[in-house]
Each structure stands twice: as C-alpha cells, then as structure tokens.
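Researcher: Please translate sequence to structure tokens.
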Amino acid sequence: MFKYNHIGYRPTSPKFFIIDQPQQDEFHIQTIDSSVTWKDVFTGKLEKNGDVYTGDFTSVTTPGDYRICCGGECSKNFVIKENPYQHLERLITNFFTWQRCGSIKGWAGVCHQEMDHLAGTEKKLDMRGGYHQSGDLRCWHDGCSAALYGYLRYAEVSNPVWEDGLFEEELRWGLDYFRKTVSPEGFIYDCQFIPLGWGHRDYYNSPAPLSDHYNICRLLARSSLYFREKDPLYASENLALAEKIWDYVEKSSFFDTPYVPPVENLPRGTQGVVFYWQNRKNCTGMDLAAAAAASDLFYATQKEEYRKRIMENMKKVLSCQIQEGEASGIFRDRLDNEKIAFQDCGYGHTHSGMVFLADLIENAFDSDSLPEWKKALEKYCDMLVREFRFLGIDSNMPLPYGRNMRNDLPPGAPFFNDSPITLVHHSIASTSSALTKSIVLASAYRLTGKKEYLFYSQRCLDFLLGWNKQAASCVTGVGYNHTIHNVYGQFFPSTPQIPGGVIHRIPGEYDLPVAGLLLRALTNFRD
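Model: Translation complete:
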C-alpha cells in the first residue's frame, strides 16, 4: 500500500511516499496526457527506511495529474499544481458554516434556542449562536475561539474567487457569540455545556479557564484590525471587549492556580481538571498565550504596555528552554520544576505556543531580542527534526497527554526525567500537533533556509492527507480511505459526514480547532 499525500503538491514542494513491501526497488511516476493514457515521466530507486521503503520524486515539478507505480501496483491519482489545496480551503470554510449552533445553515438547523441559565442566580443569558466544536453539541470557548482565530488568519491573506463575502459573514457569526460570553466584570462566563442535549445549558458566574480568556481576547483584538475599515464601530467594540478581558485577567488572582470546574461529577469527556492541569499564570504555556494576546492587542492599539508585556514574557519563556543534552530545545513548564510544557489538553497553546513565537519572529517584531528568539526557535525545530528521524518517517504514535508511556517507546527513545518527550509533547499522531509543527517548521524554513524544516513541514501536512499508517485522509470528502468516526462516552449525536470536516486524530471525531489550524497551515503551501 502506498502512503502519500492524496491531494498532491506544489511544484516546489518536497515529494515523498512510502511503501511497505515493494516487489522491486524501482518505482515510476506516471502522468496522464491528452491521449488519456498513463505514461512514465520519472523513474527512481526506493530507499529502505526502517521497516518501510521511501521514494523521492521531488524533481517532478510539471503541473498535472500523477500516480505512483511500483511492482505492478499503482496509487490513486494526485495533482501537482500551483495551489493544489484551494478546493480543500473552500470545503473547510464551508465546514465552519455547517458547524454553526442555532443557525438555519448549520447541520443541526435552528437548535439550542432556549435561554441559558446563569447557575445559582435567577438570571438567564442569551447565548444562542457559536459553533458545535466537535462531533457533539458543545461550544467550547477555548477550542472554538482558537478555531475562529485560525479562520481569521486565513481570511486576512486569502482572496479566492469563491469568497463573495463569506469570510466576513462567518467571522461575524462567531465573534457575535464570543462577545456574549464576556461578563460585565470582564471575565468569560464558564460553561461545561451541561445538561447534555438539545435544551438549555448552564453557564456559571465565575471565570472560565485562563486559556479561554487569552484566546478570546486575542481573537477580538485581531478582528478589530480586520473590521477597522469594513465596520469601524464593530471593530472598536471588539477591541474594547478584548482590553476589558485583558484588564480583568491582569488584576485577578483567580488564575494563579490550575483550573477547577464549577460543578462536580461532570460527564465523561468534559473539560475538567485533567484537561487544564497546566492552565494557570506563570507557566510556559500560559506565558506564551499571554504574550500572544498582548501582541494582537499591541498591533491593534500600539500601546507600549502590551509591547512591554511581550518582552517580559518572552524573557521568562526562553529561560525555560533546555539548552543542552538529549532534551535540548524542549521547554520546561516552569523554571522551578522539571515538567515539560504544553502537556495539558487545553487549546491555550495550540495557536499561541511555538506558532506564536515563529509568527513573532517572522513578522520582525521590533525588538533587539529577535536574534535570541530566532536561536530558540531553531533549537526547538532542530529537536523536532531529531525526534522525527528517531521515530521514523512512518511514525504514528499515540498522544497520551501526560501519561507515562515509557514502555511503549522504541529502544533508545530520548527522555526528559520521567516524561517521554516523543509521546507527551511531540507525537505527530494528533492532527493538531502535526499542524502546529507544520506551521512552525514552515516559518523556520523561511527564516533560516534549512531544507530539513521544509521537508518535515510538508511531511506533517501529508500526515493529515493520507501519509499515515491507515493511509487515510483526515478530511471528509478529500482524498481516500476515510476512517469511521469514534463514538465516545460523552454525548455524541449522529453527526452527518460533512465535507471539509477534519478529525482530531485517526480514528477520531470532527474537531473545529483542527479545521482552523489547517486553514492557517495551508497558507504556507502556496507558490
């Protein structure tokens, strides 16, 4: 079985595939011509790579339809062209619309129209709108806001012929919901989206996790730039709310300790203590999330206080990076402990961890510290390259989030104290993990010119689009061999197979944050 990117490649992209048990060591790349017959255009030799064989056809650059053939077997077709992923981008933007909650355009129709309860009070809230995050009915604040942030970053640099006002409409739909989540005091109302089902939901008169606040803050701040000329009043309102959230978080001691949900005995799969155990002030993940929020506030306001905060936080974060040994490049959770950063399941670091650091450097933030930040980014990316090499080109290991899986690692795996680095932090089996790596490595390649970064950036994208042990595409309606969606112990309705839906792992469920990340990642794969 061939494992490769089912959609295809840009002409300048690295192009590789693997095959498990080839009948010969020679392979052929074929294209179809005007006579509608397949003809060889390239012949190469397979190279053994662990238990599999790898074929390199990077030198094939002419736009067209292609397939791989070896030993009498041929792959399904794929393309090489300037923007091979444009139809994928269109499907994912449509997926956002399908995932709307309470909209005639959402897959569930006009659902969740009851007023929601502010638990412990007589007050009710109008929280209609937003998105169903996954294959369920919940509208998680940090995940959905991270998803819409990815959509926003995509919309900022994209102007496809089919857009026709779609981006502004979709952004308003999501932003209007997040505006409602801000309390009069400035905190984000907590919500576990229970009771489960199609009726009302309980919100709580207490703050949501810290990552929710930073994600929504930076989304609202950056959206003010997008809407500044389109709708100045809307832009100023969003920016005012972003600053209100920031001010509340800065003054509150609520976030000094890890998150504890406001209700006990939560149903399985809800976002409780285990999900957010690193979600607090003064840890690397949240320090980066705070710097990311400060950066979007700075770009929107040019206030020196936000620039100063970026500098302070980056100094703290870089002090937590390990400089030598087998763990070189890894970040500690805090300087005073030896836990690895970014281990929890929250979405606070998905869009604002190392992705933010790469973005900060590539956009030449005005700082004398840029060379130091660039060095830290390179050290991190060199660590990723070491681990990819160690795991092998066909790695698809589980992502256990903090569990010690030492016994499941191959011999010689690098460790940082009691934590297996390769599994806990850097497995590419999680689609969101693969995409964050792809984005970071693409930025690092543009900054350094190191071709290894470009190769593994493409490899991480390929993972979602067919190059994995199941040889399955993670995007419904795109590519081949889609896996059946899992049904977990939480409440999952019969979600339809939605074109453009992206699963969070193989096998897995739809996950809107991954869809937003994929949109943002795809902006790196255009010639």
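Researcher: Any highlights?
Model: The CA atoms of residues 228 and 308 lie 24 Å apart.
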